[in-house]
Amino acid sequence: MFENLSNRLQDVFSSLKKTGSIDETALDSAMRDIRRALLEADVSLEVVKKFISEVKQKALGQEIIQSISPSQMIIKLVNDELINILGNDTATVNIEGKTPASLMLVGLQGSGKTTSIAKLAKFIKSKYSKNILLVSLDVNRPAAFEQLQKLAHDIDIDILPKVENQSPENIAKRAIAAAEINDIDLILFDTAGRTSIDDNLMQELKELESILEPIETLLILDSMTGQDAINVAKNFSDKIKLTGSILTRVDGDARGGAALSLKMTTGCPIKFIGNGEKIDDIEIFHPDRIANRILDMGDVVTLVEKAAESIDHQEAEKMAERLQQGEFDLNDLLSQINQMKKMGGISSMLKFIPGMKNLGDKANTVSDDAIKKQEAIILSMTKLERRKPKMINSSRKQRIAKGSGTVVSEVNRILKQHRKMADMMKRVSKKGMSGLQDLGLPQDFNNQIPPEFLKK
C-alpha cells in the first residue's frame, strides 16, 4: 500500500536535499509536486487542498527558508500532516458496554465484509478473551450463512444457527436472546450488502441499528476501489451512525488514496486494515506508523510486534540457550526461515525497516522464492549434515542439489550464508544488543524497539 505515493514523495525529497537552501519559489514547486503525487494516489481533492495549505502555512510560519536543514523540516511537516489526516491517535475497537454488546459490520457486497468479521472475531478473542457469537443477517446473498459458518468453524467461534425464512430483524432479536442465555460477551453481526447503495439497504440497516443499539458500527471498505470507496463511505455515514472503518485488500492497493481521505470524509477513524487473505492478516491502524511507512521511515515497532506474535517461544528459548554456547547450525537456520514465513516472508518484513521498502524488488537474495529454495536445500540434507555443516563435501553437495532441485552453487551459497550468520550470532551472544551496531543496522534501530522486547 502507498508504494506509488511513497516513491513520488521520495523523488520530491531527494530533489529538495540537493539544494542548500529553499526559497519560496522552490517551496511552491515542491508543494506542486506533492499535490500531484497525492492526486495520483487517489486522495480526494478536498483533502489534498487542506494538506498542501497546512504544510505550506506551517513551513512559512516556521521560517523554513532560514532553516539549517530545510528539506528535513519539510519532510517532518509532511509527516505531521499525514498523521493528522490519517487520524492522529490510534483508535481501538470498543468492546465494553452492556452484556451482550453488539458490533455491526456494514458495507457493499464484495468489500470483504464476511472475511473481515471473522478476522476481527479472532483478533478480539485472542487479545481480550471475549466469548463471541457470530451472526449472519444476510438473507439475500446465496451461501452467505454457509461462508460465515465455515469461517466460524476455522477460528473455533460459535455462530447463530440458521432458521429458514426469517427476516434480518427477527434474526437479530433471536441472536440477542440466545446470547443472553449462553453468557455471550460480544455479538458480531454480518449485515447484508448490495452491489450499490439503495434505499432498501439503508432502511434495513436503520432498523437493525435501532434493534441492536451497537457499541460499534464499522464500515468495511475495499481500498482498491479508490475514490469510489470515499463516495461509499460518505453515503453510509450520512444514513447511519458509523464509529469507524476497516480497510480491506490494502496489500493490493499501491495508491492508498482511500486511507488518506477516509477520516476527513466520514469523521470516523480507520480502526483496522486487512492486509492479506489469511485469517490473521488484520492489523490495528496506527496513523503515525502508516505515515512512517509512506515516507519510507520504516515501522520497526510493528515488525517487532509481528515477531512477538509469530515466534514459537519454546523454540526461541532453546535457540537462545544454544547461542549462549556459541552454537548455530542449519537446523537453527531452518527454524529462522520458518519464523520468517509465518511473518509473511522477507518481502513483507522489509517494508517495516527504514530505507528497505523496495529492497525485495531489487535483490534476488532476499526474495521469497529464494527463501523457499533455501528451505528445500536444508530439508534435502541429513540430520547429521544439518548439525555438522562442515562435513558437507563435494559429493554430498551434489546429492543435496539433486534432491532439492537446485545446483551446487546454490548449496554453496546457503552454506556460506550459514557461516556468516553463525559468526553474527556469536557476536550478538557475546556483546548483547550492542552487537547490533557491528552489523550495520540503522543507528536508531534500538530506539524504535519497545523496551519490553529487549528484556531477557
Structure description:
The longest helix has 24 residues. The chain folds into 3 domains: 84 residues, SRP54, nucleotide-binding domain (Four Helix Bundle (Hemerythrin (Met), subunit A), Up-down Bundle), CATH 1.20.120.140; 198 residues, P-loop containing nucleotide triphosphate hydrolases (Rossmann fold, 3-Layer(aba) Sandwich); 153 residues, 434 Repressor (Amino-terminal Domain). It has 456 residues and is an alpha/beta fold. It contains 21 helices and 8 strands. Helix 10 links the parallel strand 6 and strand 7. An 8-stranded mixed beta sheet has the order 3-2-4-1-5-6-7-8, sandwiched between helices.
Topology:
Layout: H1 3-17, H2 24-40, H3 45-61, H4 70-86, E1 101-106, H5 113-128, E2 132-136, H6 144-154, E3 158-159, H7 168-181, E4 186-190, H8 199-212, E5 216-222, H9 227-239, E6 244-248, H10 257-266, E7 270-274, E8 282-284, H11 287-294, H12 300-310, H13 313-324, H14 330-342, H15 346-350, H16 359-362, H17 368-379, H18 383-387, H19 394-404, H20 408-431, H21 445-448
Parallel strand pairs: 1-4, 1-5, 2-3, 2-4, 5-6, 6-7
Antiparallel strand pairs: 7-8
Helix pairs in contact: 1-2, 2-3, 3-4, 4-11, 7-8, 9-10, 14-17, 17-19, 19-20
